[in-house]
Amino acid sequence: QEHLVQSGGGLVQPGGSLRLSCSASGITFGIYTSGWYRQAPGKQRELVASITSGGITNYTDSVKGRFIISRDNARNTGYLQMNSLKPEDTAVYYCMARFAFANGDAYEYWGQGTQVTVSS
Asked: E strands along 2-45, which residues?
């Protein structure tokens, strides 16, 4: 059965670092575009970063220079390294993997979500 399992997250002081992991099962992770979303209380879910199967990365402006998305296809795992964390990074973070066909159909899977809290 296909699923994504997240690990990492927790409470960190401003300026600190955390690494989130997303382990995929049941899919060939290397052919999927993967990404990390977050949702803060009262706000819409937003895309934080994404990485294509070819390794092309994209970041939302607020995390550029601080977060790094990466993947290890041999381990079927994606990562989000978060540095210089700010209180406004506090949110539930979700990993996602998506494979799109040329006709527009797609397979899409989501992790269970993990809380990241940045506070002193």
From this structure: 3-7, 10-12, 18-25, 33-39
